[in-house]
Amino acid sequence: MNILVTGGLGFIGSHTVVELIENSHTVVIVDNLINSKIEVLSHLETLVKQSIPFYQIDLTDEEALTQVFEENKFDGIIHFAGLKSVGESVEKPIEYYLNNLVSTMVVIKLAQEFSVGKFVFSSSATVYGDQDSPLRETLDLKETTSPYGETKTMGERILKDIAKINPKLAISILRYFNPVGAHPSGLIGENPNGIPNNLMPYITKVAKGDLKQLDIFGDDYDTIDGTGVRDYIHVVDLAKGHVAALELVESGVHTYNLGSGKGTSVLEIIIIFQKVNSVKIPYKIVRRRSGDIATCFADVTKVNDELGWKTTLTIEDMCRDMWNFEMKFDNSTRVL
Ligand code: NAD
Ligand code: UDP
């Protein structure tokens, strides 16, 4: 299949491009580089040993995107592009609603006009709000804690309305849990701007000595050791989940959790990261971070049964591959 990958130079998009090409699909990338760098394209091309068509376009620009659809015939679209910082979305709600919702509407509108058969949407576990884990796809969605989360809930709703008038379209809504890790080659990975908010990138910077210590946000949760529990998923496993959805999902809307189904605490992550990479992670316990929940992990029965997909990579793999990516480039030659 010929697949349009929006946001294909970003963290999850770039890894998915590799999996698509390794599974004999062809890919066209659209990205406006708002949160990625053009160098990622050459690293991707090195990895897959072929050139990849790329358009630097903002998806909210319908005219420019129409031209991409006129120049290419797509069998499917994977729509990753979007702004993703929870904290920033609280500060800049309009930017988040505009970027994430308008881009989704423009892409799905053109998908219909140009009769594209398959559409995969990047959603998030955040749409569940604060409910008890394991989280199943059948749960009612609760109000999320941020404008970012609301753009995901609304994006899902828009797609469900489109499906009502276009029943042949195969729509996969994929709710990611906590994507981490990097490609084992060390050529692509994630490098958030500034001081990271998320646990794993923060740990990596502490291990490298760029940050002094990790603040652990609370050790008094009702969890195995008092620290927060999340469902971490290796980005390569996550990328494979998109290929499965694209290849197997038939008409209608199908929603799947993409997680490991297993929770891991902050302290457990620190212990594993130190062990597999032979580094020290100094930390101190501080107050809980506002808005955090104790535990969040997926029920993955549906995706296992219907798509035959499950994670194969471990927390050890995630820690090792993140560190490998970090070590491969110093800050001056950084690609992401
Ligand atoms: P990312 O920021 O690394 O990649 C997103 C890409 O989209 C970037 O390259 C950016 O430049 C591009 N982009 C953003 N707005 C655009 C626009 N208007 N036009 C064209 N390109 C645009 O993010 P990621 O971690 O790869 O996430 C991909 C998707 O998955 C996002 O929709 C995100 O909300 C969702 N998601 C991510 C996580 C996570 O923890 N990484 C968790 C759940 C869901
Ligand atoms: N966390 C932490 N210190 C940090 C960042 C995160 O203790 O500097 C904890 C956080 O409280 C949560 C877990 O690590 O329990 C995962 O946080 P992250 O922000 O990576 O993911 P999210 O909370 O969005 O699922």
Task: Please give a structural write-up.
The chain has 336 residues and is an alpha/beta fold. The chain has a domain at 2-180 and 232-260 and 297-312: NAD(P)-binding Rossmann-like Domain (Rossmann fold, 3-Layer(aba) Sandwich), CATH 3.40.50.720. It is 40% helix and 18% strand. The chain contains 11 helices and 14 strands. It has helices spanning 11-22, 39-48, 62-71, 86-91, 93-113, 147-165, 199-208, 235-248, 266-277, 301-307, 315-328; strands at residues 2-6, 26-31, 54-56, 76-79, 118-124, 170-176, 178-180, 214-217, 229-230, 232-234, 252-258, 264-265, 283-286, 295-296. The strands form 4 sheets. It has a 7-stranded parallel beta sheet with strand order 3-2-1-4-5-6-11, sandwiched between helices. Strand 1 (2-6), helix 1 (11-22) and strand 2 form a beta-alpha-beta unit. The longest helix is centred in the first third of the chain and has 21 residues, at 93-113. The protein is globular. The two termini are 28 Å apart. The model is unreliable at 331-336 (pLDDT under 50). The structure holds nicotinamide-adenine-dinucleotide and uridine-5'-diphosphate (UDP). Uridine-5'-diphosphate (UDP) binds at residues 178, 197-199, 202, 214-217, 228, 230, 266, 289, 292, 296. It catalyses: UDP-alpha-D-glucose = UDP-alpha-D-galactose. It holds the Pfam family Epimerase. Belongs to the NAD(P)-dependent epimerase/dehydratase family. Its cofactor is NAD(+). Keywords: Carbohydrate metabolism, Galactose metabolism, Isomerase, NAD.
